[in-house]
Design a protein that fits this description.
Layout lengths: L5 E14 L8 H8 L8 E14 L10 H16 L2 E2 H4 L10 H15 L6 E7 L5 E4 L28
Parallel strand pairs: 1-3
Antiparallel strand pairs: 1-2, 2-4, 4-5
Helix pairs in contact: 2-4
Length: about 170
């Protein structure tokens, strides 16, 4: 049996959503210091660009890794329906307990795609362009063991920029 060539296919979609970067583990002052203008109580919006890449062998019978029409349908269910023209923090249950950073958005999209795809093992990458300057890439797997949040250190660990400040 001969080996099959491995090819990647990427499909692009855009959606608009708003959110507020605000951690329930921080007080209002610390949230403002950490997230800056992205902590605006009224939120702010983005026109996100999402690139979903699948990767796998080219089927000798179909000539495809995946039918692009199927990928379009999976992205419609996993991305467009739950996220487009929504307030992430108020309309998407996942973000009730998770800060709506672009990193967490990429993880959410990955997980949603895994649920709807016929062959989730083909999912290779979710890339989100939050702004022209800020991009996030998630390829699943590779997790770190999280330590329990030590709230006594929250007042000393500040960063003055956020991932979506531009």
């Amino acid at each position: 049996m001969s080996s099959l060539p491995i090819v990647s296919i990427t499909r692009r979609e855009t959606f608009s959503s708003c959110h507020r970067l605000h951690s329930p583990f921080l007080n209002d002052e610390d949230n403002k210091k950490l997230y800056g203008k992205c902590n605006n109580p009224n939120g702010h919006g983005h026109n996100y660009v999402v690139l979903v890449t699948v990767k796998g062998p080219v089927d000798p019978q179909t000539g495809m890794v995946m039918n692009v029409h199927d990928l379009k349908q999976f992205m419609q269910k996993a991305i467009m329906e739950p996220l487009d023209h929504k307030n992430l923090d108020q309309d998407v249950p996942y973000f009730k307990a998770v800060v709506s950073t672009t990193e967490n958005l990429a993880i959410f999209i990955w997980d949603q795609l895994q649920k709807v795809m016929d062959k989730p093992q083909l999912l290779h990458e979710v890339k989100i362009l939050e702004t022209e300057k800020n991009h996030v890439v998630y390829r699943g797997g590779n997790t770190y063991t999280r330590k329990k949040c030590n709230t006594s250190n929250l007042h000393t660990n500040h960063h003055d920029v956020s991932s979506d400040s531009d």
